[in-house]
Write a structure and sequence with these properties.
Length: about 425
């Protein structure tokens, strides 16, 4: 069979153009429709993005007023300086006896301690005590020989017994004040001295009694020659804790204290003392009860406290007490700042503290928190602009500010409050 014409016909049919009355394929039209939809969606997306950006830009140009407060805190190395009077004794002294309690508040004239010189002789003390016992025993013998009651002596004995009971009761209660206890002791000494004088008058011509009392006087004079009694010349707090800085650090010397000297004290450098002071032994110090100073060291370059500026101070170890302090003067040298404070408060809690870590805080002042770029000047007045139509300018007082935020207070109360929206510039 001849197949050649059939192949030729098939080849020819593959080259013919399509008839004119036939339309294009349907797939090509669908592609155009999809492309148009994508373009429309893109336009809407771009428009939405533009509107969103405009809204975000508008929000960035406004801010909401919030509550805030001022007050920064600074960490310092603190040196505590009290008004202290140091009492010392010859290092060759034979002994020391304390008559007051450590930390006791004593009045003027109170006996605090006794120091025995190198001439101290314990046998003289023993002989005196023995002689006093002999006198007491002999008095009892003479009184037993009396044939009539002595109402005067009975009254003196009653007074002494009552004072002893009151002293015992006061010493056993935590509420008893040291000053009242010392007063009772003085009353007891006076009553006993009065009783002894009366007994001497009662038996003036007894030879044995006169011999006992003469020996007592001789021993007392001998003991007094080598005994020094320390008596408070002003009211104060007694402290037996001394570190040698008492004369170097005081209210009179704090202004001459440099940052370098203060840092030396903080690091435990030996106190400045003369050769004569080093040769003596410290006995006690008497501290003024009210008011003390603080020398605070810091390397903070941004802190610039001013004289009379108030601060709050809390010492490590005394966290339950926050002191009100006031700046006296400042000195900045060698990258270190020394701030001198005065605290008008009870010095007793800090009695045995010389160095302590401390936190110095600015007094907290409440106000309204706004961005710093929301502040604007108008006719010589600083204020903020409420985001209203029309806008309203609110004059404010700036309590504190930095590059980002400011704490303000409206000049006229009630014109600015939390939650209001203000403009930024």
């Amino acid at each position: 069979m001849n197949r050649e014409p059939i192949r030729a016909a098939r080849r020819g049919s593959s080259r013919r153009p399509p008839p004119r009355n036939m339309s294009a394929p349907r797939g090509r039209g669908k592609r155009k429709t999809r492309l148009g939809g994508l373009l429309l969606l893109t336009v809407f997306a771009l428009a939405g993005l533009f509107v969103w950006q405009l809204s975000q830009t508008a929000l960035r140009r406004t801010a909401v007023v919030a509550a805030g407060q001022t007050g920064r805190a600074y960490q310092v190395d603190a040196i505590l300086i009290r008004e202290e009077t140091l009492f010392d004794m010859d290092s060759a002294s034979a002994g020391l006896k304390y008559l007051a309690d450590d930390g006791a508040l004593v009045s003027r004239g109170a006996q605090i301690a006794q120091v025995y010189s190198s001439a101290y002789n314990q046998s003289d003390v023993n002989n005196l005590n023995r002689q006093l016992e002999n006198i007491k025993a002999y008095y009892r013998t003479l009184l037993d020989q009396s044939t009539y009651p002595d109402t005067r002596l009975t009254a003196l004995d009653y007074d002494i017994s009552l004072l002893v009971s009151r002293i015992r009761a006061a010493s056993q209660t935590s509420s008893g004040e040291a000053a009242s206890l010392l007063s009772l002791k003085r009353q007891l000494e006076s009553a006993m001295s009065e009783r002894q004088s009366y007994l001497k008058q009662k038996f003036p011509n007894d030879a044995a009694l006169n011999r006992y009392t003469d020996e007592e006087k001789t021993l007392r004079k001998r003991i007094e020659s080598w005994t020094i009694t320390y008596i408070a010349d002003t009211p104060g707090i007694v402290s037996f804790y001394t570190d040698g800085y008492e004369r170097m650090l005081s209210g009179e010397t704090i202004e001459s204290l440099t940052p370098a000297l203060a840092r030396g004290v903080w690091n435990g450098a030996p106190p400045e003392q003369t050769a004569a002071e080093r040769a003596r032994e410290r006995v006690y110090k008497l501290v003024r009860p009210q008011g003390f100073y603080v020398a605070a060291l810091t390397t903070d370059k941004n802190w610039k406290p001013q004289p009379d500026e108030p601060f709050k101070i809390a010492f490590e170890g005394l966290e339950d007490i926050v002191y009100d302090a006031k700046v006296t003067t400042t000195t900045r040298t060698g990258g270190e700042l020394l701030v001198r404070f005065y605290i008008d408060a009870d010095a007793a809690p800090t009695l045995n503290m010389r160095r302590a870590k401390a936190t110095v805080g600015e007094p907290a002042v409440r106000g309204l928190l706004v961005p710093s770029d929301a502040l604007r000047a108008k006719e010589g007045q600083i204020g903020v602009v409420l985001d209203m139509n029309p806008a309203v300018f609110i004059p404010v007082t700036v309590l504190s500010s930095d590059a980002r935020e400011a704490i303000v207070r409206p000049v006229q109360s009630g014109t600015l409050a939390e939650g209001q929206r203000i403009r930024r510039f």
